[in-house]
Amino acid sequence: MFKKILVPVDLAHIEAIQRALSTSADLARHYGAEVCYMAVTTSTPGTVARTPEEYEHKLEAFASRQEEVHGQKTSSRCINSPDPTADLDGLILKSIEAVGADLVVMATHLPRHLDAVMPSHGDRIASHTDVSVFLVRPA
């Protein structure tokens, strides 16, 4: 059913997306799918890496560790953006097409009243793509 699963990640907040990571690994194992971990970084130094190249290497290492732990094929896609927060939705949508994903698994927050005015990234992705989007909420 699914051949490639795109999982947006933020290496600075891996602990916050553990449920989404486990869900994507379980789905990949069940369907024999590849998981592509996608991240967006900036050119300015951050808490995870000083350069986009260093961030990309850390993302590749993260994907390799996930492959070893969960046993399914993985890949990574690192994108440099001047404003990751503003550009995130568009970059996820472009990545879906670029990697040929047929499922997106994303961590999300619990619903809140502000979502009526400012929808979450997951809401926007689901409403702007024809692939399935699985939003994983915190426990």
TrEMBL record:
InterPro entries: Rossmann-like_a/b/a_fold, UspA. Residues 1-137 form the UspA domain. Pfam families: Usp. It comes from the Bacteria. CDD domains: USP-like (cd00293). This is Universal stress protein.
